[in-house]
Structures are given as structure tokens and as C-alpha cells.
Design brief:
single chain; mainly alpha
Length: about 150
Amino acid sequence: MSDSNFDTSCTFVVKVLEGQPTNDPNDPGGFTIWGLSSKYNPEVTKDTTYEQAKQIYRAKYWRSDCSRADWPLDLVFFDGHVNPQDDPKLDGTGNSELVKLLGPWEFRDPYAYAYAFLLCRAGRYARRSKDIYVRGHVRRMERLLLFIENTNE
């Protein structure tokens, strides 16, 4: 358990799942680059580099649960902090709400817990996301699962 998987996790989440800059008028996050929305990360601009984005991700989204968890749970927790943005004012959002639902993770198999966590996230997306985003969110869970299955850490 450490930060040793941060680079692998960040590269996959940012470069594979998040993709290129967008300014989707339906997205309440506004302009987004490297997966960082300007609403939640006002320091980002169209000129933000990947290395700058990586520093933001480490500081804001690679939280203590990521540092304490084994692979692949650290990746899944990290992605859970990235998308959706934690909002403790809404019931049913944030990693902590899913951990409450699933129970403590510290002494459980990290693969089994990660898969259950992804399934619960997919359900949360189905309940909480705008309809136009649900398919993409479910595909995100699928891509995470396939990446985990095809990566031997």
C-alpha cells in the first residue's frame, strides 16, 4: 500500500477515460481539459499541460484511501474521486457513501471489492446522471474493469 500506482492510475484515468478538452454546454462543469473542469478547478486553462494536470490530480483527487489501498482498489477509488466530483450535500455520492454501502474494505480482497465498488458506481450513475451521460458512465466502468483485468500489477 503506497502511492506507487499513482502514475499508472493517473495515466489511464486522464489519458484514456477523460480524453481531450471539451466545452459541453450540457455539462455543468463547464470547460474541461485533461478531465479537470474549470468549475471545480479554476486554475485550469486551455494551456494546462498534462504534467500540470497530474499535479492537480495528485493534490486534489489521490486521497488517503487511494494511498492506503492495494491495486486495483487504489485505481477505482481514484477514479471515484475524479468522476463524479464528491458532493457530500447529495445523498448517494462520493466514495464514502459507497464504502458505507459495501462495508469496510481494508481486510477484503482488493479485486473483489473493486468490482463490487464499480458495480455500485454504475448503479449510482444510472440513478444520478443526466440521461445523455449514463451510457458513457457505464462504458467508463467497463473500461476500468477491462483495464484491471488486463493489467498485472
